[in-house]
């Protein structure tokens, strides 16, 4: 592999501003001795879908998990640098991680519905956070969340069935509905379609498209076509570095960094 | 020569067969460095040793196990009828003394008749020993010689040795089946004997337990009642209620703390501690329950105004048993919780749930079948536990729900009924086997059901 | 949150929700409550563990605080003259000399009572003579085992301020003891007899050696039977057994036997070994056989796990160079699996070593005051000895029971340490 520049190429439109929804500055992540993310700075804006792409092991998922501090659950992980949500440092000891995660929701690679009914899966978040005053409130939240996730018509007659009885694609949309139910501001999606078949993938992509604008969405994917289809901004990671960050169409048609070009033309990855 | 001496000669013959046959096989024709025969000389030798040793030693083992009874019966048949002992215990005592005198354990016989029988017995023992030993030697010689003659270069000695090994392995695995059958048959046999004297209906539904059978007709308080309900209740009360009230919360919370909260280093210290708790012999728990816990429980009961408190209380035995079961419940719950996929936990945490909310609302419900299966296994272990109840629960068959009173259990009664001098075929001793049968069936069903639950649960997440 | 001017291309028909006020007071209070619950829950978890550990510590503390006195005994100094005529007066020979009468006389002369020394105190004199026959006719000061009452007083277990009728020792004994103290003729010494003698009806003479030997004999029988059969069963099931009904029955039998209460094995031993085969009661042979059947499933299960963990690549490699099935197993599979098998065996055997209930049923609770010399002689084992002593009323037996428990725990602990050592030393990762 040729020697590459480790400087990040940031496109003009993407110049870092400090009033974005979430900002990351010089973020590094270590797993024990190993450094998985190397000093990455990026902005995440409301109204847009931001895609993190790159070959596997490039640190994109690890970086994503910093945004709602899910790396806290891994004993050996250590995060350096600043990540702010609405200008407040989320790694500040005074920042409440429970609230943070309610505001920054997450959808995982493999659908992980709880072994409870569909209704209870959606109601779980609002219930622990006390977002519903009454049973009717809760019914409304469940219904709107499922509607937004485009699942309502498929499951409205069997809300009492177990969430694990749904198909893979439906399970993943259930998980998205579950994330929506607490009314988050940001939704992080960690390769949400990698365990799904093409038809289910198309449905989830359609859903992401519909959600865009309502939430700030960050999606990690190793599928470049998917990034091109659903995102407006794309960040390309390689070996823990952020290589290039810019508008999606520009990254795919006119990349500025050599590594990005090599990757999207299929020379490595 | 004793049987052991014959056995030694047979071993020597087997070694000889091995060496000579191996030497013979090593001399098979063919150029060096090529495969000259089907099997290597070692296998020819081994096969010869097997043929020389196995049949002969089987004869000797057979005689060692059964020979003494045969000789004893022949002795009894040969001595004059006048000095022949009666049947049953008398005969047993006669034979015991006879053997003791003959082996030199007793310097002289107390019973003149025994003294008269000793020479007869000795003569028979010597005669049979020669016959059996000679037969064994003959078999060894025939076996070894046959193998020696048979060891041609095309003889498939290795195949024979391997088949023999397979047969031995298969026979070994039959021991487990034999044990199971032995348990079932011996329990059934003695229980049927018992139920021919006491109706099964009375045994299972009766509420009076006082197993002394009257020696004299007019004896007081020796009704010989065999209603086992108080024992069943005592067993359930101590093993499935009191012990579980202690063990389930402590065991479950320990497992939760160990798997969800404790850091790696804390786990390294705490887990072995629980394992030590599991490794303490039950007799130690029993001693502790009887000597330390029971008096404390009694004093506590009296201090809160319960005067009927017994020094052998259900509470003391049950609580200590519960502590004994903690590591068991904890390790089962640990397994069940670990089997819940990590993604489930992440999913809940990512919603902003606290760890305890995640545990209570997601992990424990998801692991519930596994935990319940583990608890059932723990119950089965608790009701089969013996020493703690023997030492701390007492022998009074009370039908009471007062934890400060003394109750007794199935296992405690089995020990009580079968220790001390008992004639074996009284209803009292036989009832122990009926109790054993009930215990066996109940623990077996509990285990089968619990293991099925646990297995189904594991498969759900695999 | 939702900006109406956002570039959303959905036909918006869904009702809007008011954004959650995360910083409202109600929400903050709710979060504080949730965190309080979190801390409480975590505390309960830790408390459960601490309670379990605390119980273990308390148990060990009680045992040790009682038990260490079991390793001590009080001794009384007596001036003994080995007068030949008196020793041989009864039997006529020194080999069967009567030390008892001799010691009694000396005790009476020096203390005015025999009650300061144990009934078995004369054993010490015989030992002295056996060590040094030249003592005949000589006089020497010998420390002999004290009586239980003196033992209690020397260990400080008697409250002298209590009135005589509420004490275990009468005033006369207290006086004798005071005299002993003043003349410095009583001391506490290491109870060597505890580790070298068998059971006795007098607590000051009782020892665990007989029970320990009984345990060792029993466990040797158990091991000799259950280890080979267990390993062979495991090898058969893992490497040979065809998938058929009989194999299924074997598997089910083993799994069920592992869960059968131990006392059921006692019933089996009683019905089959004692009553059917007529084997001797109370003998390590029968105890060992019974425990072997109990231990068998444990060993089989452990050995199967160990055999399963041998990577198939090793077997394939050996088969590839033309090894037969027996050769593959004996040359390659068993050596790799052996540490795992041994660890499982030690765990199974140490459980058998602590087992009591089944042995009670086959008569190993008999009072045995001799040290057993073979597997067919009457014997008792450590756990049963503990059970028997725990039933004795004397204060002296309480500390003996605890001391015996200490011995048993020490044996078990060192066996488990050996298992852990083996596991760590030979554990291989593939």
* Number of spatially distinct domains of chain B: 2
What general outline of chain B do the C-alpha atoms trace? flat
Architecture per CATH nomenclature, i.e. the level-2 architecture of the largest domain in chain B: Orthogonal Bundle
SSE-based structural type of chain B: mainly alpha
Q: Give the radius of gyration of chain B.
A: 32 Å
CATH top level label of the largest domain in chain B: Mainly Alpha
Distance between the termini of chain B: 64 Å
Number of helices of chain B: 15
CATH fold field value of chain A: Rossmann fold
Order of SSEs of chain A, N→C?
A: EEEEHEEHEHHHHEHEHEEHH
* Most extensive contact: B-C, 88 and 80 residues
Q: Describe the largest sheet of chain B.
A: 2 strands, antiparallel
This entry's quaternary arrangement is heterotrimer
Could you tell me the mean pLDDT of chain A? 88
CATH homology-level superfamily of the largest domain in chain B: MetI-like
Membrane topology (chain B): Multi-pass membrane protein
Keywords (chain B): Cell inner membrane, Cell membrane, Membrane, Phosphate transport, Transmembrane, Transmembrane helix, Transport
Transmembrane segments (chain B): 41-66, 127-149, 161-189, 231-252, 273-294, 314-341, 362-383, 432-454
GO cellular component, one term (chain B): plasma membrane
Task: Please provide a written account of the structure.
The complex is a heterotrimer of chains A (about 270), B (about 450) and C (about 425). Chain A has one domain (about 10-265): P-loop containing nucleotide triphosphate hydrolases (Rossmann fold). Chain A has 10 helices and 11 strands. Chain A has a 7-stranded mixed sheet, with helices on both faces. A 4-stranded antiparallel sheet of chain A has the order 3-2-5-6, with helices on one face. Chain A has helices at about 60-65, 95-105, 120-130, 135-150, 150-155, 170-180, 200-210, 225-230, 250-255, 260-265, and strands at about 10, 20-30, 35-45, 50-55, 75-85, 90, 105, 185-190, 215-220, 235-240, 240-245. By secondary structure, chain B is mainly alpha-helical. Chain B has 2 domains: about 5-30 and about 35-155, no CATH class; about 225-460, MetI-like fold, CATH 1.10.3720.10. Chain B is built from 15 helices and 2 strands. Chain B has helices spanning about 5-25, 40-80, 90-105, 110-150, 155-195, 200-205, 230-260, 265-280, 280-305, 315-340, 340-350, 355-385, 385-390, 410-420, 425-460, and strands at about 210, 225. Chain B has a two-stranded antiparallel ribbon with strand order 1-2. In chain B, helix 2 (about 40-80) packs parallel to helix 5 (about 155-195). Chain B is flat and about 85 Å long. Chain B starts with a helix and ends with a helix. Chain C has helices at about 25-65, 85-90, 100-110, 120-130, 150-155, 170-180, 210-240, 245-255, 260-275, 285-310, 310-320, 325-355, 355-360, 380-390, 395-425, and strands spanning about 70-80, 140-145, 185-190. Chain C folds into 3 domains: about 30-70; about 70-190, no CATH class; about 210-425, MetI-like (MetI-like fold), CATH 1.10.3720.10. Mean pLDDT of chain C is about 85; it is low at about 1-10. In chain C, helix 3 (about 100-110) packs across helix 4, helix 7 runs antiparallel to helix 12 and helix 10 crosses helix 12 (about 325-355). With about 425 residues, chain C is mainly alpha-helical. Chain C is built from 15 helices and 3 strands. Helix content of chain C is about 60%, strand content about 5%. The interface of A and C includes residues 102 and 128 of A. Chain B: One of its GO terms (cellular component) is plasma membrane. Chain B: This is Phosphate transport system permease protein. Chain B: It is a multi-pass membrane protein.
């Amino acid at each position: 592999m040729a020697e590459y520049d480790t400087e990040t190429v940031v496109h003009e439109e993407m110049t870092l501003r400090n009033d974005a929804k979430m900002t990351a500055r010089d973020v590094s992540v270590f797993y024990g001795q190993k450094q998985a993310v190397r000093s990455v700075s990026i902005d995440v804006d409301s109204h847009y879908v931001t895609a993190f792409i790159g070959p596997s092991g490039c640190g994109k998922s690890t970086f994503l998990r910093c945004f709602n501090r899910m790396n806290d659950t891994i004993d050996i992980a250590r995060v350096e640098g600043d990540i702010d949500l609405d200008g407040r440092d989320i790694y500040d000891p005074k920042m409440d991680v429970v609230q943070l995660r309610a505001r920054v929701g997450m959808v995982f690679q493999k659908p992980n519905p709880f072994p409870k009914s569909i209704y209870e899966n959606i109601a779980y978040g609002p219930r622990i956070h006390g977002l519903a005053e009454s049973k009717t409130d809760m019914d409304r939240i469940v219904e709107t969340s499922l509607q937004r996730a485009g699942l309502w018509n498929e499951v409205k007659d069997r809300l009492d069935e177990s969430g694990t009885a749904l198909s893979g694609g439906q399970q993943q949309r259930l998980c998205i509905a579950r994330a929506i139910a607490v009314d988050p501001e940001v939704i992080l999606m960690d390769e949400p379609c990698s365990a799904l078949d093409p038809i289910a993938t198309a449905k989830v992509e359609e859903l992401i498209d519909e959600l865009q604008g309502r939430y700030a969405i960050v999606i990690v994917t190793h599928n470049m076509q998917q990034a091109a289809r659903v995102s407006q901004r794309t960040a390309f990671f390689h070996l823990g570095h952020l290589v290039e960050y810019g508008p999606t169409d520009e990254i795919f048609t006119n990349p500025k960094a050599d590594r990005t070009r090599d990757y999207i033309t299929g020379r490595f990855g | 020569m004793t049987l052991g001496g014959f056995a030694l000669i047979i071993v020597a013959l087997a070694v000889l067969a091995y060496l000579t046959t191996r030497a013979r096989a090593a001399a098979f024709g063919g150029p060096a460095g090529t495969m000259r025969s089907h099997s290597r000389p070692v296998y020819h030798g081994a096969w010869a040793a097997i043929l020389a040793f196995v049949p002969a030693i089987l004869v000797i083992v057979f005689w060692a196990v059964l020979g003494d009874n045969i000789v004893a019966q022949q002795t009894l048949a040969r001595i004059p009828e006048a000095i022949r002992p009666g049947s049953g215990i008398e005969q047993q005592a006669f034979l015991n003394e006879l053997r003791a005198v003959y082996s030199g354990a007793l310097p002289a016989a107390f019973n003149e008749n025994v003294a008269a029988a000793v020479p007869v017995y000795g003569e028979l023992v010597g005669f049979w020993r020669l016959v059996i030993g000679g037969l064994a030697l003959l078999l060894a010689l025939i076996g070894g010689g046959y193998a020696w003659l048979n060891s041609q270069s095309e003889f498939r000695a290795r195949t024979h040795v391997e088949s023999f090994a397979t047969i031995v392995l298969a026979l070994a695995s039959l021991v487990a089946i034999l044990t199971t059958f032995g348990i079932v048959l011996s329990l059934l046999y003695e229980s049927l004997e018992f139920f021919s004297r006491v109706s099964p209906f009375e045994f299972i539904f009766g509420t009076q337990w006082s197993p002394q059978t009257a020696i004299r007709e007019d004896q007081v308080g020796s009704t010989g009642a065999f209603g086992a309900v108080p024992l069943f209740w005592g067993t359930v009360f101590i093993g499935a209620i009191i012990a579980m009230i202690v063990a389930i919360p402590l065991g479950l919370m320990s497992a939760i703390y160990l798997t969800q909260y404790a850091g790696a280093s804390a786990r390294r210290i705490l887990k072995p501690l629980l394992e030590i708790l599991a490794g303490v012999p039950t007799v130690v728990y029993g001693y502790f329950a009887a000597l330390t816990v029971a008096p404390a429980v009694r004093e506590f009961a009296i201090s809160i105004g319960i005067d009927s408190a017994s020094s052998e209380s259900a509470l003391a035995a049950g609580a200590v048993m519960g502590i004994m079961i903690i590591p068991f419940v904890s390790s089962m719950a640990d397994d069940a919780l670990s089997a819940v996929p990590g993604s489930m936990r992440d999913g809940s945490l990512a919603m902003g749930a606290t760890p305890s909310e995640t545990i209570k609302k997601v992990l424990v419900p998801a692991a519930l079948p596994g935990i319940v299966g583990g608890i059932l296994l723990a119950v089965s272990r608790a009701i089969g536990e013996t020493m703690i109840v023997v030492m701390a629960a007492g022998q009074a068959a009370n039908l009471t729900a007062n934890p400060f009173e003394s109750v007794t259990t199935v296992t405690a009664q089995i020990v009580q009924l079968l220790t001390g001098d008992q004639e074996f075929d009284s209803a009292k001793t036989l009832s122990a086997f009926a109790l054993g049968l009930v215990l066996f069936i109940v623990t077996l069903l509990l285990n089968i059901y619990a293991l099925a639950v646990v297995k189904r649960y594991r498969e759900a997440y695999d | 949150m939702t900006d109406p001017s956002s570039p959303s291309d959905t036909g918006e028909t869904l009702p809007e929700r008011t954004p959650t006020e995360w910083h409202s007071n109600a929400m903050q209070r709710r979060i504080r409550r949730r965190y309080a619950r979190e801390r409480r829950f975590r505390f309960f978890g830790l408390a459960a563990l601490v309670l379990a550990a605390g119980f273990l510590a308390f148990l060990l503390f009680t045992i040790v605080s009682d038990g260490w006195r079991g390793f001590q005994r009080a001794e009384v100094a007596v001036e003994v003259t080995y007068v030949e005529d008196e020793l041989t007066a009864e039997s006529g020979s020194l080999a069967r000399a009567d030390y008892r009468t001799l010691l009694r006389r000396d005790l009476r002369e020096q203390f005015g009572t025999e009650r300061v020394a144990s009934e078995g105190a004369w054993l010490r004199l015989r030992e002295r003579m056996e060590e040094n026959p030249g003592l005949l006719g000589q006089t020497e000061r010998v420390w002999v085992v004290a009586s239980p009452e003196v033992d209690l007083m020397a260990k400080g277990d008697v409250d002298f301020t209590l009135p005589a009728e509420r004490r275990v020792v009468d005033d006369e004994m207290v006086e004798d003891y005071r005299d002993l103290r003043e003349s410095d003729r009583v001391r506490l010494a290491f109870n060597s007899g505890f580790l070298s003698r068998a059971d006795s009806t007098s607590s000051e003479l009782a020892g665990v050696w007989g029970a320990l030997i009984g345990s060792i004999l029993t466990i040797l029988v158990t091991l000799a039977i259950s280890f080979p059969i267990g390993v062979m069963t495991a090898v058969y099931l893992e490497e040979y057994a065809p998938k058929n009904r009989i194999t299924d029955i074997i598997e089910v039998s083993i799994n069920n036997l592992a869960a059968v209460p131990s006392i059921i094995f006692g019933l089996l031993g009683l019905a089959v070994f004692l009553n059917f085969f007529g084997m001797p009661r109370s003998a390590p042979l029968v105890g060992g056989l019974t425990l072997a059947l109990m231990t068998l499933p444990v060993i089989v299960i452990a050995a199967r796990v160990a055999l399963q963990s041998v990577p198939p690549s090793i077997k394939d490699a050996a088969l590839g160079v033309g090894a037969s099935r027996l050769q593959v197993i004996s040359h390659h599979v068993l050596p790799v699996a052996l540490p795992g098998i041994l660890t499982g065996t030690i765990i199974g055997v140490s459980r058998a070593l602590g087992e009591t209930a089944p042995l009670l049923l086959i008569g190993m609770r008999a009072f045995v005051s001799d040290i057993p010399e073979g597997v067919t002689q009457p014997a008792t084992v450590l756990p049963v000895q503990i059970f028997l002593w725990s039933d004795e009323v004397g204060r002296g037996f309480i500390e003996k029971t605890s001391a015996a428990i200490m011995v048993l725990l020490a044996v078990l602990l060192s066996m488990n340490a050996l298992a852990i050592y083996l596991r760590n030393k030979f554990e291989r990762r593939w």
